[in-house]
């Protein structure tokens, strides 16, 4: 990321948040529209457009009116560094300080901008260079590499097929507490026993316990094959 460990350009928190939001939206959309970004950041569309124009001049984004916004390679490097910090902090808070997974997002939001890459690397080493955060999101490497996985929503998982909870899409505290109560934490074995028709609820076995959840909740739980 930075040419020298622990040193990177001094961008404001607003710029870093803007670039991070674009990166996250780009995971679902080829072009990020101004309205999407404004909603994600909780700012007005004119403010979003003004920031996009500013960052386009700095070669951090490509902004084409009516076509959307994309990160340049330079903008993506900054976004990935902030995301790396955020996800490492979340995992550190859980593994080292005993936070629960529904408590860490806000703490990481406050801390991610203050962490140097040198400190981030120390945290990564302390945690044995983890690949995923507590919610199953990939942690970018120091070089900006991201591990991609082909995952399936639990709502679409085949019946009677053993899987493993790999990632949670909705990470709101209420949803995370609900999923934890159902045993649907990252790494938990899961099997869809029955699925009611017409978008009815799913009957599951989660860590050898019977659970019932709705289709909407199941669509936010991503699953991969259970390790044999």
Kindly report the spatial arrangement of strands forming the biggest sheet: 3-8-4-5-6-7
Number of strands: 8
CATH class of the largest domain: Mainly Alpha
In whole angstroms, how far apart are the ends? Answer: 36 Å
Keywords:
single chain, 228 residues, alpha+beta, Arc Repressor Mutant, subunit A, SH3 type barrels, six-stranded antiparallel β-sheet, two-stranded antiparallel sheet, 8 strands, 40% helix, globular, disordered N terminus
Structure, described:
The protein is an alpha+beta fold. The protein has two domains: 1-148, Arc Repressor Mutant, subunit A (Orthogonal Bundle), CATH 1.10.10.10; 152-225, Ferrous iron transport protein A (FeoA) (SH3 type barrels, Roll), CATH 2.30.30.90. Helix content is 40%, strand content 17%. It contains eight helices and eight strands; from the N terminus they run αααββαααββαβββαβ. Strands 3-8-4-5-6-7 form a six-stranded antiparallel sheet. Strands 1-2 form a two-stranded antiparallel ribbon. Strand 5 and strand 6 (202-206) form a beta hairpin. Helix 1 crosses helix 2 (34-41), helix 2 (34-41) packs across helix 3 and helix 4 (73-97) crosses helix 5.
Topology diagram in text:
Blueprint: H1 13-26, H2 34-41, H3 45-57, E1 61-64, E2 68-71, H4 73-97, H5 104-111, H6 117-126, E3 152-153, E4 162-168, H7 173-181, E5 189-195, E6 202-206, E7 209-213, H8 215-218, E8 221-225
Antiparallel strand pairs: 1-2, 3-8, 4-5, 4-8, 5-6, 6-7
């Amino acid at each position: 990321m930075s040419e020298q460990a622990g040193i990177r350009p001094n961008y404001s928190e607003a710029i870093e948040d803007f670039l991070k939001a674009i990166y996250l939206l780009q995971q679902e959309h080829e072009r990020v529209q101004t309205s999407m970004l404004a909603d994600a950041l909780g700012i007005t569309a004119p403010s979003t457009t003004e920031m996009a124009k500013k960052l386009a001049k700095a070669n951090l984004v490509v902004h084409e009116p009516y076509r959307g916004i994309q990160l340049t390679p330079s903008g993506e490097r900054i976004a990935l560094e902030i995301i790396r910090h955020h996800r490492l902090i979340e995992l550190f808070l859980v593994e080292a300080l005993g936070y629960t997974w529904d408590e860490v997002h806000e703490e990481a939001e406050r801390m991610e901008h203050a962490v140097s890459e040198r400190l981030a690397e120390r945290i990564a080493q302390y945690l044995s260079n983890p690949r995923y955060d507590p919610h199953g999101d990939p942690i970018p490497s120091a070089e900006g590499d991201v591990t991609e996985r082909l995952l399936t929503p639990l709502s679409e998982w085949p019946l009677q097929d053993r899987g493993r909870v790999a990632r949670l899409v909705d990470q709101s505290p209420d949803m995370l507490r609900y999923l934890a109560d159902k045993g649907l934490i990252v790494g938990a074995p899961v099997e869809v026993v029955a699925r009611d028709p017409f978008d009815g609820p799913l009957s599951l076995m989660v860590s050898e316990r019977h659970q019932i959840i709705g289709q909407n909740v199941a669509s936010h739980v991503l699953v991969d094959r259970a390790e044999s």
